[in-house]
Amino acid sequence: MFEIIYCSVATRVMDPSDITSILRTSRRHNQRAEITGMLVYYGHSQEFMQLIEGEESAVHRLMDRIGRDARHQSINIVHQGAKAERSFPDWSMGYCELQPSTLASICGLKDVSETKMIDYVGTGKRSVAKRLMDSLHQQMAK
Ligand SMILES: Cc1cc2nc3c(=O)[nH]c(=O)nc-3n(C[C@H](O)[C@H](O)[C@H](O)COP(=O)(O)O)c2cc1C
After folding, report:
1. For ligand 1, atom 20, which residue shows the shortest CA distance?
2. What is the CATH number that goes with domain 2-141?
3. Pocket of ligand 1 (CB under 6 A)
4. pLDDT tens for residues 64-87?
5. Residue 21's pLDDT is what?
6. Which end of the chain is more exposed for a tag (fewer CB within 10 A), N or C?
7. Predicted structure pTM score
8. CA distance linking residue 37 with residue 42, whole number of Å
9. Is the pLDDT of residue 97 over 80?
10. Residue (of 138, 97, 98) closest to 115 by Cα position
């Protein structure tokens, strides 16, 4: 099992129908490719963060395709590596819209008005991206 977490910046503000369209395609394709994961959209700074997990070659193939998508740019892989088991076994692609207050509380920051997700998760400490994903996952499961 292999996973990639990346951050990117939407090329324009995403409205709910844009997100629905991305998720519809993703879920259809990911089911076939046995990919699972979670997509996060942070409207505050128009950023995406996504975790994709599955068989290594399938994950790289998907990442290549996602990387060519004109709906986002500045794609930064913040974590990749092997893992023992899936974190999102039941989600062909989960979705979470991240609010500034949630980012602030997870990061322990007072003011996130200037904070981009990439500033927080792209610090070179790869555990940060995983920790944020885990926290969001736990909050969604409640
Ligand atoms: C932020 C973002 C996340 C995406 N995630 C996935 C995904 O998990 N799986 C997927 O198949 N496509 C995903 N896509 C869509 C792909 O980039 C691509 O448009 C889609 O797979 C359709 O490819 P096709 O037109 O070659 O069939 C994502 C797109 C964006 C902008």
Report:
1. 25
2. 3.30.70.100
3. 22, 25-26, 29-30, 39, 48, 50, 52, 62, 65-66, 69, 71-72, 93
4. 999 999 999 999 999 999 999 999
5. 97
6. C
7. 0.94
8. 17
9. yes
10. 98
Residue 90 has pLDDT above 80, yes or no: yes
**Mutation test residue for ligand 1: of 22, 30, 47, the one with most atoms within 8 Å of CB:** 22
Residue 30 Cα to ligand 1 midpoint, Å, equals 9
Q: Which of 15, 25, 60, 73 to mutate to test the pocket of ligand 1 (most atoms within 8 A of CB)?
A: 25
